[in-house]
Amino acid sequence: MPEKKATTKKTESKKQDTKKVAPVKQEVKKQAAAAPNAAVGSTTEQKARIGVFICHCGTNIAGSMDIKEVQEYAETIPGVAFVDNYQYMCSTPGQGKIEKAIKDKKLTGIVVAACTPRLHEPTFRTATKEGGLNPFRFEMANIRDQNSWVHMHDREGSTDKAKDAIRIAVAKAALLQDLYPKSVPVEKTAMVVGAGVGGMQAALDLAAAGIKTYLIEADTSIGGRMSQLDKTFPTLDCSQCILTPKMVDVGRSPNIELMTWSEVHAVEGYIGNFDVTIRKKARGVLTPKEAEARGIVGGGCNGCGDCDAVCPVVKPNNFEVGMKPRKAIYINHPQVVPLIYTIDFTSCVKCGLCVTACGPEKRAIDLESKDEFVTVKIGTAILATGYDIFPIEKKEEWGYKRFENVITSLEFERLICASGPTGGHLVRPSDGETPKRVGFVLCAGSRDNTGTGKPYCSRFCCMYSLKHAHQIIEKIPGCIPYIFYMDIRSFGKMYEEFYYRIQDEGAKFIRGRVANIIEDKATKNLHVMADDTLLDRPIDMEVDLVVLASAIQPSADTNRTRKLFGVSCSMDGWLLEAHPKLNPCGTTTAGVFLAGVCQGPKDIPDTVASAEGAASAASIPIHMGEVELEPYFASCIEDKCAGCGMCVNLCPYSALSLVEKDGRTVMQVTEAKCKGCGTCGGFCPGGAIWMNHFTTPQIVAQIDAFLLGGEQ
Amino acid sequence: MSESGINHKFAFYLGCIAPNRYPGVESASIKAMKKLGVELVPLKGASCCPAPGAFGSIDLAVFYAMAARNLVLAEQMKMDIALVCNGCYKSIWEVNHKLKHNKDLRDAVNEVLKEVDMEYKGTINVYHTAELLYNEKFIGVDKIRDSVTNPLTGARIAVHYGCHLVKPHKDREFEKEVMLNTEHPVWMEELVAALGATPVEYRNKMQCCGAGGGVRGYDIVHALDITNEKLINLKEEKVDALTDICPFCQLQFDRGQIEIQEKFGVTYNLPVLHFAELLGLAQGMSPQDLGLDLHGISCEPFLQKVL
After folding, report:
1. Is 70 exceeded by the pLDDT of residue A39?
2. Contact B203/A521, CB-based, under 8 Å?
């Protein structure tokens, strides 16, 4: 099959070689006439003189195609005035070639055949500008990612494909016009969604940089997952001890407006000018500030807990993973920030005992409170929505929720924590006994290709399981941890050293994935069945307690929130960064950034680092005061517009509206909102929408260049 | 439902062990399924499936060609295949699945089949009768419950699923659509409950019977060791009978108990019945019709409890 394809291509290019093509000058004129004045910069009457620059990208491109042949072909394309090639077009000498050629050869447009616009469009636009042309007179032909990389072993085919790509790019370059980016002012406020350690750090950094920041948290208090942990690896410092000061700072910072028990309800606008509506969920308890606003001087919740003492409704405490009771009016734990109680209205019976207990002075409780909606204006936003534990009961072979003594690592954290439900005594849920043999199942639902679990590595389970092993050795004399692992991934600073330390402390490591866990009905002990792949024998290990290092997944509300902000996600649900290596905090939506685990599994140091990165990135547009928008917006050719309004409904960015003009109804574009997606332009029945930089004549010329092999 | 009461017809693939060792499985399947609106039409001229462990481990070409020949016979009848054995399911379902999706393999197999003037076309599907019984599209639990005239009330029955029907999980389509659960399934227990009996969970339910994959043929003591472990776990729950959906598993548990007695000196006397036999009993078939007297371990204590 590939051979056949190559031959057709060859004849096509031959045909193209022999027949010379009419100049594209007329097209330029036509287009200039059709374009509405508002949308076009200076129009060009002169004949197109295109410069083509072919990049070798080392051997990335040159290794898979015949650069000389491509260059010789490019020289024959009508409108091409100059062709050159270079090892690395993106290098300083490479860019210099472009600048020099523009001046020497009086070029009107530039085509660089290299990698992707995502990577180097800005580079070459700058070079085009330095050479004296409008930067938008540059077009890129992708002959690497979409050609040499995928056709690595088809030299002839990729050479032909590169010729096609360059011919198409030249056809567009001949019709490119001068465009001028617009600037919009940026609101000097930011928002961080999610107040775990990542969100808190991002908010603190923004606040320290003098930016007013709204910190939105869906739970009743801040701190996130980290506040549920007992100790942190590899330093073994107490998680709460290092987190509490940050929580207090967040609560006190004059630049941070903390909104707990709140979620993002709606987002409108664009970078620099987002309008975000927050739903403040009915809390039933007034803060001192809210009380004062209602004229209750010196009132509001002071966290005394008198209400908690009298509340008759008992529910499981989610913060303690359901292992401790709480009332219908509750706080998550004693160190909460903010120290304001919350009523769980789904279980409150409205008996009013709490109102009486709170008393006539504080009057903090309002059983009739309703959800409130607040809209704020922000310039940039950071999503730090974190993670949930994968429901590990789906891996039925390990019996979570079927066998009492199989628990998750998060449950272990609460059980070993001094402020947890057992006061820090690790016990078996079945009988309250102290376990002497504890099995740890690593990669529980992670690195799982069965379709039930998650294919990715959850990245911190190895390390916290080592920490768990250390904790039980330290707390329970004679207790042996048995760690069932695939590989121990101890990749961070001082992590490998920690791994050796735990080995020396006496933890037992068994390299083998656990196939099955069986409960002994009489003793409630568990038999962990695995294949010991180092000793090459099956193993049946009887233990008193099993801890599943469950995989993690994006938090429940992540998908809804990301859609509001127009952020993409990868197949596994983690939010998608603009570039995995070079722009890990940015997203494809300008002004929206990612911090922490919502982008992919991270441990605490990485989460904090990513949060600081996101805060820095989010503060740049705010400090600059204005942002430049790509001039790719749509514009209306008013003479042709019938005012039908179909485009207005289609626009995914609410950028279009209908206005009265000279007694007629016509469409109008809010340029700052328009992303240039082309939905309206492609649909408009009257052809009345002009898409800058993707005009109909440009696209038609590209299609013709491909289909007709250059004949037009 | 059509006038005859028959909604579905299948080419009935018997396999080797059912007709030779447990003929009741054959008669019960045909009769009981008919009452549930499914007619099983004998697949004439069928060969061994062939056994996935014994053949599949030695010569894949023979394995594919033989299974394909059985499939072609059903294609000629223009009927989907129904079968009663997990081993047969592994061979015939899986070969059908692979031949449908792999052109190179299909061409190679057809090259062989040409010698007997046959061509595999990939026009039919393959089902296990247990799947037909549970899936509402064909029969479903409610219909089974309604067909019971002699409820097996008071009997404590444990289920052995067998391996090849449920694994490998990734390749088994019906699980994704109907049964979902493979590591700790409970749909067979639902079927047992529909007959009026009490399904009983036991330790390490999903463990292999010990016979499959050629283990019984290669190393009988090792195979019996696995069977013995399952029997220990079953004894713990004081069950009246074990039910299965695979004659090879049944052979291992039934005759295997005699061999365990000889080799290990342990006696269990646990009646082992294919689910088709249980269904037949619950629908009023006599133990003689079901050939229960041909079992290695007497079913009498169980029959006294339920009849």
Report:
1. no
2. yes
Residue among B214, B165, B167 at smallest CA distance from B56: B214
Q: Is the pLDDT of residue A274 over 90?
A: yes
pLDDT in tens, A337-359: 999 999 999 999 999 999 999 99
Distance CA B185, CA B162 (A): 11
How far off is chain A from B205, nearest CA to CA, in Å? 9
Please answer whether residues A405 and A432 qualify as being in contact, where contact means their C-beta atoms are separated by less than 8 angstroms: no
Interface mutation vs chain B, best among A392, A393, A395, A396, most B CBs within 10 Å: A396
pTM: 0.82
Q: Which residues contact A519 (CB under 8 A, 6 or more apart)?
A: A399, A402, A403, A405, A525, A526, A527, B203
Topology of domain B8-128, per CATH? Glutathione S-transferase Yfyf (Class Pi); Chain A, domain 2 (1.20.1050)
**Architecture in CATH for domain B149-306:** 3-Layer(aba) Sandwich (3.40)
Closest CA to A457 of A603, A350, A329, A266: A603
CATH 3.40.50.11810 residue spans of chain B: 149-306
Computed over every residue of chain A, the mean pLDDT equals: 92
**Token duo for residue A49:** 């003189």
Is the ipTM higher than 0.90? The answer is no
| Residue A30 pLDDT > 60 | no
* Chain B residues close to A450, C-beta within 8 Å: 169-170
Domain with CATH 1.20.1050.140 in chain B: 8-128
Cα–Cα separations (whole angstroms), residue A553 to A170, A559, A571: 46, 11, 12
Q: Which tokens is A492 given?
A: 């961070």
pLDDT of residue A652: 82
Instruction: Round to whole Å and give the CA distance between B147 and A436.
Output: 53
Chain B residues touching residue A519 (CB < 8 angstroms): 203
- Residue A245 β-bridge partners: none
> From CA A581, how far away is CA A583, in angstroms rounded?
6
Each residue's pLDDT tens digit, A207-216 = 999 999 999 9
- Best A395, A402, A450 member to test B by mutation, with max B CBs in 10 Å, is A450
Query: Peptide bond before A245: cis, by omega within 30 degrees of 0?
Result: no
Provide the pLDDT confidence category of residue A383 given band limits of 50, 70 and 90. very high
- What is the rounded average pLDDT of the residues A641-654? 90
Amino acid at A581: K
Residue A623 has pLDDT above 50, yes or no: yes
Please state, in angstroms and rounded to a whole number, the distance separating the CA atoms of residues B199 and B42: 32
Q: Per-residue pLDDT tens for A57-78?
A: 999 999 999 999 999 999 999 9
DSSP assignments along A21-44, one per residue: ---SHHHHHHHHHHS-GGG--S--
